Records
---
Amino acid sequence: ARAYGSLCWNLSKVIPRKDLPRIYTMYTPVDLDKGNAGRDLQFQDQNRRPEPFNTLDADLSWKSSLQDLEATRQDVIDEVRRAPDRRIDNMITHLDDSARLLRMHLIMSEAVRLDFHFARRKILTTAFGVGVAGNVVSLAALYLVPSVWTFAAVLSGSSIAGAAGVYLFGNYQLQDKAKEMASDAFLEALFHRIYVREVADGDQFVQSLWHRVRLQLRSAIETIGVGNLPKVSAGDVRQLDAIVDDECAALRRRAAPQSRTK
């Protein structure tokens, strides 16, 4: 107990965690018939579970303590043997996590792109409407009253100038909107709008995914520009859904030990 306490005290100085990891207290068995000089190690066979400790005399009072050490030692051996399975499981988990992150990134990126293009389309439509409306009125006036051709020409020129002014002013506002779209406030509001049900349900998993995606999305917007974000198709999202819902589950079933699948 004193050695265990000293070890924990020293580890607490170098491990930046509130709780220490599990410490396996065990021993290395030796062949007592050869004495301490020989120390011929007797490791457990890989295909059998630990049997009752029988290398020492039954009258020794510390036999039960060695049995506990033997059980702990066997736990360590089992953990080492499970390392390949855990590596496979970690790789599948990493694939699942990456697919979920990429799916959210694509959905949010497409939402930003559509919002920006909707604003730009609105500006173009307004400018086009101003120009067309003015020219239609001028042509109608010229058709009905040919003598007012001067007024019709002035009205047509004014409508074209007004359309150009609307477009330039709208483009200026669009640049400000592009900068706003890279802000955390806009992206957070957009996330709450897209994932309204998950936010209402308090889904902490979706929230954690968003906190990891937000920085990458903002970096992409600032780097290539919101107007140059690539278009995301519904097929791309469906492929990621298939990876998360079907392929990762199938991989976990194939990687599961045979004893669990039977």
---
Amino acid sequence: MYSEQLEKLIEMALMDGELTEKEKQILFKKAEGMGVDLDEFEMVMDARLFEKQESMKAATQTTKAAPKSDKFGDVKKCPACGAMAESFKTKCPDCSHEFSNVGANVSIEKLFEMLNACENDRKEQSTSILGVLGSQMAQATGGGDKVTQKKKSIISGFPVPNTKDDILEFLSTAIPNAKQKGNFLTKQNPENKSHNDLAPTWKSKCEQIIMKAKFSMKEDKGTLEEIMAYGKELGI
């Protein structure tokens, strides 16, 4: 709909399901410079933000039985001074308190719980004739087995963590999964294939987080350096 550069900025700004005032200013300034009608642009942005939030809700429906908390790094107010805190900010802009989540590894653990549940579904399907036939048909048509496709959907749709601890914990665990195993001759071997089928999706998720951090965490150079070091491991 818009230029590739503007669409990329929109994608980065919306990937965590929130749009901060700083992000709005950057987007509207870029859109205005490209001659985009700002009233129309605002309407489009509102619609895309709503769609992103709805898709993120759908991706996490399986976790709705868990008690509500901020363990996905959802910091709403500074615990020190009570000031409103924007997502992806590692320090309070008012009092400089550093946001830290005592349950930092819960985010990635919840993701792996969802992926393990999918793997249990695979085991159940392997004992069902219909399940085996369905999996074979999906692979024959080039779509991969249903469990793998479901895992890809869960990973790509999982909420982007937005506190320092959650981001670093997520990347440290996700990076090994984003790297291909084996070489040209062995990457499709049984011991490597299931890992490699998901590696591009993991890499894409890591890239989302790293790009969002570059866009929104410029004030915390120390944390950003740690995040960019992870990016170098994947060539991002």
---
Amino acid sequence: GKSAFVPSAGRTDKGVHAAATVISFTSWKDIPDDTMRDAIHASSQGDIRVHTVERVPRKFHATFSALWRRYVYLLPLDPQVWSTSSIENHLLHAVNRLLAPLRNRELDYYAFARDTPKSKDCVCKFQTAHAFLGVLPRTNGARVLCVELVGNRFLRRQIRVFMATLVLQALRILEVRGQLPNNAIPMADTTTDTCSSDAGINECGGAFPEPADESVLMYTVMQSDRDLTAWPAPANGLCFAGVGYPS
């Protein structure tokens, strides 16, 4: 009847989805796997679905034993704005060119963290950082820009701030090149601390440095200045998609 401390593979903001997270806890009783699965299903009322129950060594910790975590952000593309594949590809190309310099490098992401003191270690490494176009299932062909990030660790609100800054900088590049569609709004949300559906490129936070080119995101990282980053992207576009542990 006692409550248990249950660490998870990664913390998420309210509204963020988790499709493949891991939790761990210690029990002094030998609880059958089916009993554990049924109890979690019953208590969560459908909000949580257990895929696997596995017994692990006592030293295992869902948070601290993880080697990497995978997040995916889905950004809906309004068909009235991103009306052709060539226009979508301009955005995709700009995003991937911004991400390329960050891969497999240990960098200080202090500028993208929130509620994190400067004295805290903010060094992270993205093993994977790339974007691709996709179609949401169970929709009428709704197209999305998908950004996948795999890293050894992530900071509070880091990905949401990173995504908003990344997309806004990509749009700025398209604007400079004359490739930006009319009324291209990067993200839509009704909360007060994120980019809103009525906001333009210059109204979503961030005193973005000039010139707008493929080095600007790395420049933002290196400056460690939160004034150069945007407000957090909406939480409902982010999904915790995987975690890796030592074999």
---
Amino acid sequence: MQHELHTKAVQILQAASTERDLTQRLRILQQASDLLLHADTSAELVASCLPFFTSLQNDPQTSIRRYAAYFVGRAAFFKPSLALRLLPSVAALLEDGDSVVKELAAKAAVTLHRRSLFSLCFQSDGQDFPKHVERMHKIEDVMLNILQNQADSPAFRFAAQWAKVVVLSQTPSPLVLAVRVPTELRGINCLQDFPEKTSMYMDLDALRQQAEDIFATL
């Protein structure tokens, strides 16, 4: 089944690459999104197509870059295991000059943070781990700048949501919560959500301090 889905996805993406009419191209991209983010489509298949969507963030057409930011947000929600692979795109899209692209990227960052924390727990590669953390810090810098200096930006409300997510996910919860959705799907909601065995590079004390520092700036 995955082979058939992959073949169909490749055909759709090829059609999107050669289509010159902007409206039709966006329709084709939406077809690709619907196929790839369906529950029956494996995360591995989506990962194989990510380079195509990553390239869209540099498209000269603003509408295409907006779609790229929209897709990243949906991918973070529907395919949480890809969270770390999506970090570079979100970091890049947050620097876009278009306010809508930036707003959609900020929205994606909210969804991505909890899921990225969970994925980091299982990163054993000493070279990749700091790269992921650096990308998360890059997103942090942009989001804090929005909060502190761009109150009139459309992205401001999502930056505020992002700060709330960071503080709650990186500090202990005083409540005993009834968990209905597995952590691997929803991500980390509080320090108690972190698995007992995490990557040797994961510093929970540093995460808590980071959250407290962000809270202090608000």
